Amino acid sequence: MKISSLFYKVVFPFAALSVIGFSGKAEAATFSGSVAGSWLEPTPGAINDNPTYTGVEKDVFTWGDPTLFKGASANQLVFEGNSFSADAGSLFKIGDLTYRNGTVLLGTSVESVPLKLNLSFDELTEVEQAFEYQFNLVNTPNLSKDPELNADFLVVNEKDTKHTFMHDGNAYTFSLTGFSQDNGQTQVSEFRVLEGEKTKAAIFGKIDKVAFSKQEVPEPGFALGLSVIGIYFISQRKAKKLK
Known about the structure:
Radius of gyration: 25 Å
Number of helices: 1
Strand order of the largest sheet: 2-3-4-6-13-11-10
Distance between the termini: 85 Å
Shape: elongated
Structural class: mainly beta
């Protein structure tokens, strides 16, 4: 799928949360509030001996030195948070991510950068949840004649796709589910941008209630059965003592 750049229609590897399977029939909680984001200290990687970047603790992050290329600009990521209202288990828009694919000197790039998301819940005005997600950045050397092979891209590290928080005595997971340019109807795992272009996509997420699995929750009669067995053995011991 092409818009102003590349957007691969593939299965998002971390879209499905492994939320534990047992669920009751209680009404789903509704979460509403707003999201703000800032970029944290990046990881340069082994091949970048002169990493150049700006925007730590800000919503605009740039990386790479473009000074030897006339009219070129550094790579750039801009995060714009969004207000939301969604039931637990429903997808909602977290914010917009704008990616500019610049031209930079070899060795001045970075390998990955964390995005810290702050969720302020309307119904929990005294609580603000903060989560960090590691974005892996793949910067191609632009050696191919095929523009698509020269595209740079980013993807969220799978181990960072979800985090847990507590609300009203229950545990919930908050996860990123994918990038989308059609209001969440299609979500993809890799945000690809052609050389010299700039593309915007929405980031979607989901809050899921964590529940116990059936294997972890005893059957209603299980505890009673243990009590009966216990009473039986106690009775047997008393009977033996009387003998």
